[in-house]
């Protein structure tokens, strides 16, 4: 409890630096990441974040100290070089883009690791902590870092704000943007630079290996919650901020815990949650819809049993036992029982001493399903020239989804018929 | 056979286009008059879409030039509108129908400014013209093929251009949409707009187009439909007499040979 109050009072300057730094870097990454995702360049983001390592090491070798600004410059240079190399290889050789990305990622990262090993064995005292750039260490953030971060984040926000519509246009329809006279190549270059900038902002806290996750996961999660690109970018930034904040908090409460990996874990958790539970697009809501549909189908099929039995002896409100119902069509008795129970609860059936009967509302509903079934059979034979003994299975499905408007249209097109293709009466309301 | 237009809106002069050194268009040369609906017709792989893209400067030309309204493209870009093939974009993109149509205004507002209320009004009006006014707020992934094509058309209309280049606007659309589109194109042509359409279906050529460009890697014929759309010309465009041409193309690609000596 003491931890929570300490953390949220922000009285410790270290806490302030870490929290603010985390939020700035993850928000910048999430914002740029949204456009990377929409332009389908997520892998490129991964390659860039790995490719900044040799730049960081080169800056150290050059200056002999851990100068943050200089390291950012070095990281920017090699990150950029990696992107240009990818494009060059893809354009000028037989190697395809995916292979070029893999190649550049591993070669640059490998070169970075070689340089780092060399530095570590050189015995330079200033090198301790340089390996933080691989997995990141937010705890080492200080006031000057924060200043650099704030400037970078402000630049990113401003540039994305100005070019928002151009980036969206290029991501949606590149040839059209070109035809309008938009400088597509220069816009690509700009987005590329922003990507490198966002990665560079993040490496001190998150590290080169995990930075790609901070670029792509918040945006991928945000895509599940909206179909509006502005809102998507906003939600992506919000997820990024939350992940940054949560990462800082977890590493504060449990000091042995690294901040960067926890940020990635939190944003992955958000992505997983979205993947499963986002309304409409998530897996669980989709399964629920399917489940509901199956329920509707069993219920309507059960009501039809009553109607068909009623047609046999023209006595629609008769009491039916479970056996009698099950004799009309092949059915799982347990499923039938639960369907009957639900229909009673909905007031479409009444039950007395294990005998069920249609209520007035139930009769209407049963009749409508049968009617739609027969109308659709007639439509299939009349307009689609399907033989009358082949139409039943199709109508079994369609009867459950026809809306009242479609029903009226169907009836109108068929000329208000009385009989279906099997010469059975089509019931009328 | 080439019949040239007096005071042409579009002039394509000896255009040769190569993909990775393989020529796909050879010395194409024709002109179009103002206020016509022109069809670009030819078999698969004839280079119809390539021709449209090279007119719009989307792919580099090896030799020859294109002039629009007697100017190079960059000087008159705001008077030209391009409708790409419907399949060329990802229709699951997170934007609404109105957002897509508003893109048609992006050329006018420029790189830095945002679209305003007036642009919105124009976009809404264009949606109305293609019969999609009720769909303005709909997410584009919910549209049918015909509706997607109408949205693309509305976006082109929002550019308020004088020359429209359309890549297969009738591909994969329902009959009602096809009729609605051709009616709209006729109204535009009556208002002295020029429309160029890449087209597949030979049945409707005579009914739809008053000018015809017959293409099969080279220009077979160009001129008013009634003079170009003849048995003999169609035989030339569709009869496979050109296998030699594509064999030469293949050799040039293999030996990485330039399409012009200089």
TrEMBL record, chain A:
The chain crosses the membrane at residues 17-38, 43-63, 69-90, 99-119, 151-172, 192-221, 233-254, 260-278. Keywords: Cell membrane, Membrane, Transmembrane, Transmembrane helix, Transport. One of its GO terms (biological process) is response to zinc ion. SUPFAM superfamilies: ABC transporter involved in vitamin B12 uptake, BtuC, Iron-dependent repressor protein, dimerization domain. Residues 359-428 form the Iron dependent repressor metal binding and dimerisation domain. CDD domains: TM_ABC_iron-siderophores_like. It is a multi-pass membrane protein. GO terms for molecular function: DNA-binding transcription factor activity; protein dimerization activity; transition metal ion binding. It holds the Pfam family Fe_dep_repr_C. It comes from the Bacteria. It is found in: Cell membrane. GO terms for cellular component: ATP-binding cassette (ABC) transporter complex. Belongs to the ABC-3 integral membrane protein family. This is Manganese/zinc/iron transport system permease protein.
Automatic annotation (TrEMBL), chain B:
The keyword Protein biosynthesis does not apply. It comes from the Bacteria. It holds the Pfam family ABC_tran. Residues 10-242 form the ABC transporter domain. InterPro entries: AAA+_ATPase, ABC_transporter-like_ATP-bd, ABC_transporter-like_CS, Metal_Ion_Import_ABC, P-loop_NTPase. CDD domains: ABC_Metallic_Cations. GO terms for molecular function: ATP binding; ATP hydrolysis activity. Keywords: ATP-binding, Nucleotide-binding, Transport. PANTHER family: IRON TRANSPORT SYSTEM ATP-BINDING PROTEIN HI_0361-RELATED, METAL TRANSPORT SYSTEM ATP-BINDING PROTEIN TM_0124-RELATED. Belongs to the ABC transporter superfamily. This is Manganese/zinc/iron transport system ATP-binding protein. It comes from Parapedobacter luteus.
């Amino acid at each position: 409890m003491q931890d929570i109050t300490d953390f949220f009072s922000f009285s410790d300057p270290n806490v302030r630096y870490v929290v603010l730094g985390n939020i700035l870097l993850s928000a910048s990454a999430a914002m740029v990441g949204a456009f990377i995702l929409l332009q389908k360049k997520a892998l490129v983001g991964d390659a860039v974040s790995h490719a900044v390592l040799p730049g960081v090491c080169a800056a150290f070798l050059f200056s002999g100290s851990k100068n943050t600004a200089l390291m950012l410059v070095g990281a920017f240079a090699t990150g950029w070089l990696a992107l240009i190399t990818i494009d060059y290889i893809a354009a000028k050789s037989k190697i395809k883009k995916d292979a070029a990305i893999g190649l550049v990622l591993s070669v640059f990262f490998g070169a970075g690791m070689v340089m780092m090993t060399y530095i570590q064995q050189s015995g330079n005292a200033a090198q301790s902590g340089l390996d933080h750039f691989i997995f990141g260490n937010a705890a080492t953030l200080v006031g000057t870092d924060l200043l650099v971060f704030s400037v970078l984040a402000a630049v990113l926000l401003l540039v994305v704000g100005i070019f928002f519509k151009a980036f969206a246009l290029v991501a949606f329809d590149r040839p059209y943007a070109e035809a309008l006279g938009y400088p597509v190549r220069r816009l690509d270059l700009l987005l590329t630079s922003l990507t490198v900038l966002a990665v560079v902002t993040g490496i001190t806290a998150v590290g080169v290996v995990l930075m790609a996750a901070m670029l792509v996961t918040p945006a991928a999660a945000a895509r599940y919650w909206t179909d509006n690109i502005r809102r998507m970018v906003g939600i992506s930034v919000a997820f990024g901020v939350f992940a940054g904040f949560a990462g800082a908090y977890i590493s504060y409460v449990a000091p042995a815990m690294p901040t960067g990996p926890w940020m990635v874990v939190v944003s992955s958790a958000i992505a997983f949650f979205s993947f499963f539970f986002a309304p409409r697009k998530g897996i669980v809501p989709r399964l629920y819809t399917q489940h509901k549909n199956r329920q509707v189908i069993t219920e309507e099929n059960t009501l039809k049993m009553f109607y068909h039995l009623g047609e046999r002896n023209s006595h629609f409100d008769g009491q039916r036992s479970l056996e009698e119902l099950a004799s009309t069509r092949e059915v799982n008795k347990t499923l039938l029982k639960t369907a009957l129970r639900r229909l009673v609860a909905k007031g479409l059936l009444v039950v007395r001493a294990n005998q069920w009967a249609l209520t007035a509302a139930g009769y209407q509903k049963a009749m409508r399903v049968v009617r739609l079934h027969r109308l659709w059979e007639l439509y299939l034979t009349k307009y689609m020239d399907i033989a009358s003994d082949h139409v039943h299975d199709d109508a079994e499905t369609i009867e459950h989804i026809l809306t009242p408007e479609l029903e009226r249209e169907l009836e109108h097109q068929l000329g208000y018929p009385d009989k279906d293709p099997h010469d059975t009466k089509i019931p009328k309301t | 056979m080439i019949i040239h237009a007096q005071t042409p809106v579009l002039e394509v002069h000896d255009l040769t286009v190569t993909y990775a050194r393989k020529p796909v268009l050879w010395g194409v040369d024709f002109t179009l008059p103002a206020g016509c609906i022109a069809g670009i017709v030819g078999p698969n792989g004839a280079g119809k879409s390539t021709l449209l893209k090279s007119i719009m400067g989307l792919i580099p030309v090896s030799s020859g030039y294109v002039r629009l309204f007697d100017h190079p493209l960059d000087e008159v870009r705001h008077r030209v509108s391009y409708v790409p093939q419907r399949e060329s974009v990802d229709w699951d993109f997170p934007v609404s129908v109105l957002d897509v149509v508003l893109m048609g205004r992006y050329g006018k507002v420029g790189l830095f400014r945002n679209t305003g209320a007036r642009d919105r009004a124009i976009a809404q009006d264009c949606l109305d013209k293609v019969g999609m006014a009720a769909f303005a707020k709909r997410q584009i992934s919910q549209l049918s093929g015909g509706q997607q094509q109408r949205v693309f058309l509305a976006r082109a209309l929002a550019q308020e251009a004088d020359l429209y280049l359309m890549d297969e606007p009738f591909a994969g659309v329902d009959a009602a949409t096809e009729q609605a589109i051709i009616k709209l194109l006729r109204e535009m042509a009556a208002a002295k707009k020029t429309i160029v359409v890449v087209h597949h279906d030979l049945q409707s050529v005579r009914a739809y187009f008053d000018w015809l460009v017959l293409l099969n890697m080279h220009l077979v014929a160009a001129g008013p439909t009634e003079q170009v759309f003849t048995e003999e010309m169609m035989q030339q465009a569709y009869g496979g007499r050109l296998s030699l041409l594509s064999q030469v193309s293949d050799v040039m690609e293999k030996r990485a040979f330039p399409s012009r000596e200089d």
